[in-house]
Amino acid sequence: MRAVYHHFMCGRYAYFYKLSQVLRLIDSGWTTEQAFDAIFNVAPTMKAPVILIGKDGTPGVTRLTWGLVPSWAEDPSVGAKMFNARSETIREKPAYREAFERRRCVVPISGFYEWETLRELKRKKPWYVAPEDGSIMLLAGVWERWTAGDARLDTFSIVTTEACGRMSEIHERSPVMLRDVEWNTWIRGKPDEAIALCEPREPDDLRFTPVSTRVGNIRNNDPSLVECVEHEAGDQLGLF
């Protein structure tokens, strides 16, 4: 059976930068990684790089599992559905409330995929959204630690907000994209300062690339996933 996820807002992304690039971005810092391989099709339940504050109060880079598992959850499998957290309710929802107050993180990515509904073709078209200049995109996130006996699982969710500008033409939601040094405010600032960064705003200098529906299969993981594909077999596009 083909492995396919339902495409909720920010349910897939890619990263193909180097660890050294992320460490330069946060002005060095600690890390639990020696290096990590590029992944062009990151899906919930996979591990991915995350920036967070360590016990010594400095930022660093580690890898957590995508899909937040609340500390009180009986079954960690709930994380597969909790990969996004709505900014409008993040301070009230029991699953995210404490994580937002105490454990905010930043998710460095190269770009994310989003599916646009094409009613005339009765299908969804994937787009790859990334910075025009190829820089690392920083998304707001929250993380949590789940334990059961000797087992420990550290997980995260990406925070979303209402989409604006070109993004709103594809989907009604957008990940919260942090500009410049806003990543530091997100993870270190007071809750009111952090939530202010989630206000809907049109993102700067993004490239929107139509890509292949191959990204819908988590077994596909190669650079061709982020390459432009205008039309695919079965589109049945014509003049009228």
Summarize the structure.
This protein is mainly beta and 240 residues long. The chain has a single domain (13-226), classed as SOS response associated peptidase-like (hypothetical protein yedk fold, Alpha-Beta Complex). The chain has helices spanning 19-25, 97-102, 182-188, 191-196; strands at residues 13-15, 30-31, 39-42, 47-53, 59-66, 84-86, 104-109, 111-118, 123-131, 137-148, 151-162, 173-175, 177-178, 206-210.
Summarize the structure in words.
- By secondary structure, the protein is mainly beta.
- It has a single domain, classed as hypothetical protein yedk fold (Alpha-Beta Complex).
- Helices cover 11% and strands 35% of the residues.
- It is built from four helices and 14 strands.
- It has helices at 19-25, 97-102, 182-188, 191-196; strands at residues 13-15, 30-31, 39-42, 47-53, 59-66, 84-86, 104-109, 111-118, 123-131, 137-148, 151-162, 173-175, 177-178, 206-210.
- The strands form two sheets. Strands 2, 4, 5, 6, 7, 10, 11, 12 and 13 form a nine-stranded mixed sheet that branches. A five-stranded antiparallel sheet has the order 3-1-8-9-14, with no helix packed on it.
- A hairpin with a 2-residue loop joins β10 (137-148) and β11 (151-162).
- Residues 1-7 and 236-240 have low confidence and may be disordered.
The residue ranges in which pLDDT falls below 50 over 5 or more consecutive positions are: 1-7, 236-240
The CATH superfamily title: SOS response associated peptidase-like
Number of strands: 14
Tell me about the biggest sheet? 9 strands, mixed
Instruction: Write down the Rg.
Output: 18 Å
Q: What name is given to the CATH topology? A: hypothetical protein yedk fold
The domain count comes to 1
Beta-strand share of residues: 35-45%
